[in-house]
Amino acid sequence: MEKLIVTGGASLTGTINVSGSKNSSLPILAATLLTEDQCVIRRVPDVSDTNYMLQILSQLGAEVERASGNVVVTAKEVSHETPYDIVRKMRASVCMMGPLVARLGRANVSLPGGCVIGDRPIDLHLRALKELGAEVEVKGGYVIIRVPHGLQGKEINLRGKFGSTVLGTDNLMMAATLSKGTTIIEGAAAEPEVVDLADFLNKMGAKVSGAGTRRVEVEGVGELHGAEHTVIPDRIEAGTFLVAAAMAAGSNLRVHRLRADHLTAVIDTLRACGHEIEVSGESTTVRRTESPRGTRIRTGPFPEFPTDMQAQMTALFVVSDGISTVVDTVFPERFMHVPELQRMGAVIERQGNTAIVEGGQPLTGAPVMASDLRASAALVLAALRAEGETQINRLYHIDRGYEHIDEKLISAGAVMRRERV
Ligand code: EPZ
Fold first, then answer.
1. Order of strands across the sheet with 347-351?
2. Which of 138, 181, 191, 416 is most buried, by CB atoms within 10 Å?
3. Of 149, 139, 136, 63, the residue nearest 97 (C-alpha)
4. What tens digit of pLDDT does each residue of 24-54 get?
5. Whose CA is nearest to atom 4 of ligand 1?
6. Is residue 62 lining ligand 1, measured as CB closer than 6 Å?
7. d(CA 222, CA 224)
8. Predicted pLDDT of residue 114
9. Three-class DSSP category at 9
10. Residue 360 CB less than 6 A away from ligand 1
11. Rounded CA gap, 315 and 338, in Å?
């Protein structure tokens, strides 16, 4: 086990480079199961979630090689049963269902374990696969899927009570690529990572159109071939660094290799708080304002404010003037960061899916506990600003989704070190 010791007060300057997207890499790696040909995926971040995915592919029988950020997968022969011991560690492994069912006509995938950010059902995934003709049974902690008569495309409404589903859209898109006929996905997720997956599928010979809108059309084809693809920059990692610069006094930080069009809600919010944001090609520079204001954010499906950035922005509101409100309509329970920020001096009141932040509070360093990936990132940001030393325990939560976050922040001037516990 490791912890991060952060000494607050440093400014962030210079340049931080953004890695490839974790949430784009995971479904794209799963999509390599759709062909027996070799696939090359570039800029796959070296984080534990992608490493879990590579272990699952390997245990399913695929040949997997990783050389720095490039991954080569050849799924010539694959099993239909995913290994419980790895799958239970990573909910995103549910996106194996679509490709396995499309390729093999069956799949046994472990039900995802619980999650600290709230209930993570997969009812929409299963309903969609059933609509394509799959028979689905939940037994012994596994989802057992059989397709006795092949998959048949149709119009499917994927909307849930919390809006669209990202991995649900991914699963359905992947299953539909090898279905007979055409599938229309109504209420599809429009996140950039869904578009990236569609781009990769089309490079494999699929016929996906409309990705990035609420209505995606997939014309089934007989088979898919190998392809090469470079995943998009990680917009949440990039957004986390933009907020870090807005947190740390005197910062002037250039975040490089990002897609500003994937971060409009975050950039607009930072500007509303008074920070100077300059977008230039694949670089965005943040100059922190000396009198940051709070504001109101409400998360929602892309392009609305991303739930994955809500904890980080909450940390910024703590050290900004005025009252801010944070409403998470996607994961109403996603406030694990609040009690930890309160230990550092934050004044935040939780009311259901809303957090009300009384800003302008001085933060003081304290031992805190990482929990979900983004809540943990919020604690790192708060520690950058806090007076004195903060210890962030259970660092593995952060290493799930951020590639060398401490090394990147240290290179921009942050004072922190990892220690074995
Ligand atoms: C993806 O998770 C991301 N993970 C999450 O990022 C992100 O928070 C989430 O999308 C929302 O943007 C990956 O891409 C690997 P959803 P996903 O299905 O697809 C409900 C991170 O920090 N729902 O879009 O699992 C669900 O409960 C992670 O990187 C159903 O009700 O999320 C939620 O309220 C955390 N039934 C809402 O929909 C279903 O069958 C959106 O969830 C599926 C989802």
1. 296-298, 323-327, 354-358, 347-351
2. 191
3. 136
4. 999 999 999 999 999 999 999 999 999 999 9
5. 23
6. no
7. 7
8. 62
9. coil
10. no
11. 9
Both tokens assigned to 363? 């933060």
Q: Counting atoms of ligand 1 from 1, which one is nearest the CA of 170? A: 19
User: Of 162, 237, 398, which is best to mutate to test ligand 1, by the most ligand atoms within 8 angstroms of its C-beta?
Assistant: 162
Pocket test for ligand 1, best of 89, 123, 167, 372 (most atoms within 8 A of CB): 167
Cα 399 to chain center, whole Å?
13
Q: How many residues in the chain?
A: 421
C-beta 119 within 6 A of ligand 1 = yes
The arithmetic mean of pLDDT across residues 76-100, rounded, is: 90
Rounded to whole angstroms, the Cα distance separating 141 from 154 reads: 29
**pLDDT for the residue numbered 7:** 97
Residue 112 corresponds to which amino acid? P
Q: What is the model's pLDDT at position 122?
A: 92
Give the span between the Cα atoms of 82 and 67, in whole angstroms: 24
Tell which atom from ligand 1 comes closest to the C-alpha of 332. 34
Does residue 71 surpass a pLDDT of 70?
Answer: yes
315: its two tokens: 């940390």
Whether 162 has a pLDDT exceeding 90, the answer reads no
Active site residue 115: yes
pLDDT at residue number 184: 98
Q: How many Cβ atoms from other residues are within 10 Å of residue 100's Cβ?
A: 26
Backbone angles phi, psi at 293, to 5 degrees: -105, 155
Within the chain, all domains assigned CATH 3.65.10.10 are found at: 2-19+233-420, 22-230
| CATH 3.40.50.2300 is held by the domain 22-230 | no
Q: Which fold has domain 2-19+233-420?
A: UDP-n-acetylglucosamine1-carboxyvinyl-transferase; Chain (3.65.10)
Whole-number Å distance, alpha carbon 158 to ligand 1 midpoint, is 13
Q: How many helices (H) and strands (E) does the chain have?
A: 14, 23
For the cut 70, the answer to whether the pLDDT of residue 113 exceeds it is: no
Contacts of 375 (CB under 8 A, 6+ apart): 116, 117, 311, 334, 336, 337, 340, 397
